[in-house]
Amino acid sequence: MSSDDLQDTNTEARFEFKKEQKAAEVAEKGLTEETVRMISEDKDEPEWMLERRLKALNVYQEMPMPTDWPGQPDLSDVNVGEILPYIRPDIETRGGEDDWDDLPDEIQDTFDKLGIPEAEKKALSGVGAQYESEVVYQNMKEEWEDKGVVFMNMDKAVQEHPEIVREYFMTRAVPPTDNKFAALHGAVWSGGSFVYVPEGVTVQMPIQAYFRMNSEGMGQFEHTLIVAEENSEVHYIEGCSAPQYATHNLHSGGVEVFVKEGAHVQYSTVQNWSKNTYNLNTKRAIVESDGRMEWISGSMGSKATMLYPSSVLQGPGASDNHITIAFAGEGQNIDTGAKVYHNAPDTKSTIESKSISKDGGRTNYRGLVHMGTNAAGASTSVECDALMFDNESTSDTMPYMEIRESDVDVAHEATVGKIGDEDVFYLQSRGLDDDDAKQMIVAGFIEPITEELPIEYAVELNRLIELEMEGSLG
Amino acid sequence: MATLELSNLHAKVAEDGGEQILDGVDLEVGSGEIHALMGPNGSGKSTTAKVIAGHPAYEVTDGEVNLHLDGDEFEDLEVDEADLHWNLLDLEPNERAALGIFLGFQYPAEIEGVTMVNFLRTALNAKLDERAELFEDEDEDAEADEDDAGYETSPMEGPVDEGEVGVEEFQAILSEKMEQLDMDESFANRYLNAGFSGGEKKQNEVLQAAILEPEIAVLDEIDSGLDIDRLQDVSNGIEALRDEQGTGVLQITHYQRILDYVEPDHVHVMLDGQIVKSGGPELAEKLEDRGYDWVRDEVYEAA
């Protein structure tokens, strides 16, 4: 049973469904204090977490919707009152054939076209468990645990590591007051990942948030909290390039990363949302002295995305590196970019943004680089490249620079171009057909991100873009 | 063996009221021959090259471009006699490439993010694939389409197409050809033409021809912007195309210089969209000494 079905059922029937199935707690439509209390109770949360949720709810109710940013995506169809904020999937009943068949056809088609075997498809879509992965994961988990690394579901972390979660959860990086959707997230968040890396520990293999898709199921409001202690190192990979299917139409995740002195965190994500989804997320890292944060993200799918991963460079010598890629097809508006606050001397940041638009799709780069009064010797370099397929598609670059310190080095470069006819002809004259030529040009265009990703993600990202370009995804 | 035949070729810039550039070009280039096409700027040399390759910026208003192939080469494909003659104007640029037409660009495109090795292997496989398709009957076509419908295995393993040149096999081919052209190994992993010097780009065009093994290579001012060492390398490459692969070469050039290294069998002079004079190597020397004005005078006096 999909959540659409749930939404369509009237209140009474829903209660009956609840009684019969005992499968899921289903919150009332819309967002009330009662809903928030119910979520918290269902998760058996400590009092402090409930308080945080309620505070966030207050902020959410008071904040206006963002409406007046230049060129921002139209959010007038986002009706939180109509959204079912919380469904706890029951693990026992998940993973059956029925769930797979309930996936939207376009998602099923995509998996087919990606050539992913059935079992893997189910795991990726969250409707089945991939047992072999589970074993591999278990082995790795033991290895991490021996070193004191914690990697678990966020809900569980609230229970098992309350002291750490209480200190960091939506206190400094993404407070509910940050924006309306951060506040919404704070009130109804559910699921997500918790990663803790002790001082001096390097986690060699990338940690992939793969397992949680086949256990608790992905919430629409999942929270990721990564704490990397001094001189530690970790590469975290969120989601995967397989489509994230949202049967409700709002995804509002929160990501908080704490990079302590000399630590290094890489956060990579490639996400492809179904095309009726509003994808409105808040992601922020606090980076201390000589720490290094790297954000690598690919945004595909969704009706509208607003996402600006940000780094606050808090200590001297802290650095940040952003690589983002966005793809907008027909009817899509992908508004994404990066924010960096240079709040200490000798901090460094680089932002590379790539966007592709096609068939009237719209991409925006929206960026903010803030150089504080104490950022002497800081430097930043921003590079935005937009590639358009046709004259109907649009791409805007909106880089904001706030410079409060004179001893800084700021570079910005933006290019916007159509896929060049000469480039296509060159490749055709070497034997590639028109589609393959364009595909190769786009693959090259996004190569900076694909080379940073593990090979299987890179391959799937390329394949997904190829499918988008053929117009064969729903 | 193959012959490229241009007859009465007329072409204009493909837009309303576009300028007429080719005004009846007749030319025949056979395998193993080297033809030099010379002429002042604006006479239509580059347009001729682009029209042969199928550039969409030009519209053919009259005449034909035909490619005649020799059946002996296609024993493996059991090609019908009827399939040995192609009107290139009916074909897409990539189909022309598959039949053995190669265009060496004066200003090759720079494609960021696409490594030489990836590009060249893709191009070679695309060519083999297309070639097979062009010569297959319809039933086999349908079968090929079916094969193409998706990966049978995980995308990690990539598509399993028969007859494709694999990564390792290709590396060997590439290394050998690069060595012949005296190109540095690091070329293989650089992005296609991106940040290449003028000379490197030209060398790269010859390298591509060496790998794709065309029947006919049209090289558009392959000698421009080359220093003397590089000119030597490029010339050696062109000779190797002819001697080792039997490629027919149509060399477009302004200058005699490259012809000192690669002696042409035939020299043609183009003026105002037509070939007005043809001769042997001595014609190129005469042009070097005396420029194009005497040809113009001769042509107009005759007319």
How many distinct domains of chain B?
1
Contiguous low-pLDDT stretches of chain A (5 residues minimum) are: 1-25, 89-98, 126-135, 211-218
Number of strands of chain A: 21
Q: What is the name of the CATH topology of chain B?
A: Rossmann fold
Short description:
Chain A is an alpha/beta fold and 474 residues long. Chain A has helices at 3-8, 11-21, 33-42, 47-62, 97-102, 105-114, 118-125, 131-146, 154-160, 162-168, 180-188, 421-428, 434-445, 447-450, 455-470; strands at residues 150-153, 193-197, 207-208, 223-228, 233-238, 243-244, 250-251, 254-259, 264-273, 278-280, 282-287, 292-301, 304-307, 310-313, 319-328, 333-342, 348-357, 362-371, 379-388, 394-403, 409-418. The model of chain A is unreliable at 1-25, 89-98, 126-135 and 211-218 (pLDDT under 50).
How would you describe this structure to a colleague?
The complex is a heterodimer of chains A (474) and B (303). By secondary structure, chain A is α/β, with parallel strands linked by helices. Chain A has one domain (3-470). In chain A, 31% of the residues lie in helices and 30% in strands. Chain A is globular and about 65 Å long. Chain B is an alpha/beta fold and 303 residues long. Chain B has one domain (2-134, 155-301): 3-Layer(aba) Sandwich (Rossmann fold). Chain B has a 6-stranded mixed β-sheet with strand order 6-7-8-3-9-10, with helices on both faces. The longest helix of chain B is centred in the middle third of the chain and has 20 residues, at 116-135. Chain B is globular and about 60 Å long. Residues 141-160 of chain B have low confidence and may be disordered. Chain A: Pfam families: SUFBD_core (PF01458), SufBD_N (PF19295). Chain A: InterPro entries: Fe-S_cluster_assembly_SufBD, SUF_FeS_clus_asmbl_SufB, SUF_FeS_clus_asmbl_SufBD_core, SUF_FeS_clus_asmbl_SufBD_sf, SufBD_N. Chain A: Residues 211-445 form the SUF system FeS cluster assembly SufBD core domain.
